[in-house]
Amino acid sequence: MALVLLSAGALLLLACLASGPNNEMKEQIGGPRASQSAVLKDDSVADREGISAPSADRKRENAAEEIASRKTPITRVAKKTRDAVVAIKVKQIGRKQCIGGAGFIIHKDGYILTNAHIVRSIEQLSVILSDSTESAATIEFADEDTDVAVIKIKSERELKALKLVGAQDLMPGETVITIGHPLGLMFSLSVGVVAGLDREVESQQGRSFKDRIQIDASINTGNSGGPLMNINGDVVGMIVSVAEDAKGIAFAVPSETIKKVLSEKLGNKLAIAN
Fold first, then answer.
1. Pairing between strand 188-202 and 3-7?
2. Which of 42, 79, 114, 135 would disulfide-bridge 103, Cβ 3.0–4.6 Å?
3. Is 181 a catalytic residue?
């Protein structure tokens, strides 16, 4: 039985040694001069042993080492891929302009992959890059049968693109990562695992899909069109929908389907990775 979907286009120990009575008596007899002598002696011992306060450079090194110790494959993917993710800003007929969902750059010349349902029935279309730059966009194609679309922007600089790789060897339990704009929270990271493969689902428009990747990452309105990435930061799919009346069940179109549609619609116009 096929699931009905909703578009998602919507966290001193202090050691104190108490001085005994004999030590107190010696301190009283010795007086201030004895205390000063003890301090000088301690300083000279420290000098001989090469003990000194950490330098500013060493403090910076310590801080850098501490940060490096907290880095994980997920933080590396987030840093590596964020600049290739965009926000799709749309004005649909009869509605106010808003963030319709996410997309990601697949070619340095400004080609962006997103969902067909995001750009359906629109009057205005623009893209917001990770540096907050906004550019007008045009639709190259929108394939409703697969919910795959490509839009294009003009940019004076070379854009960072993500790499599409095969999803045929995805494993249940494998870590996956996506970046999107859930509820308008721009460039938010979601992490989960592959929960199932080749799921049969049905869209709100009645279209049936039999190839969907099921994931348990947190997906909300604004995540649609975002890249589904493996732990290497390569794209294995694209977020398309969430299951109606369910939590922790979302779906992505696999990269094989995406590449097939790109080939059919654009031919050799795009030289995308593998």
1. parallel
2. 114
3. no
According to DSSP, the residues that pair with 176 across neighbouring strands are 192
245 is catalytic: no
Distances (CA, A) of 30 to 16, 18, 20, 22, 104: 22, 18, 16, 12, 77
Domain 84-153, CATH number (from 3.40.50.11440, 2.40.10.10, 3.40.630.30, 1.25.40.10): 2.40.10.10
- Residues 14-37: pLDDT tens digits? 333 334 444 443 444 344 444 444
Residue of 224, 234, 241, 255 marked active site = 224
Amino acid sitting at position 38 = A
> pLDDT digits over 139-165, tens only?
999 999 999 999 999 988 889 999 999
The residue annotated as part of the active site, out of 117, 181, 211, 218, is 117
DSSP 162-176: PPB---TT--TT-EE
CA distance 222 to 238: 13
Annotated catalytic residue 42: no
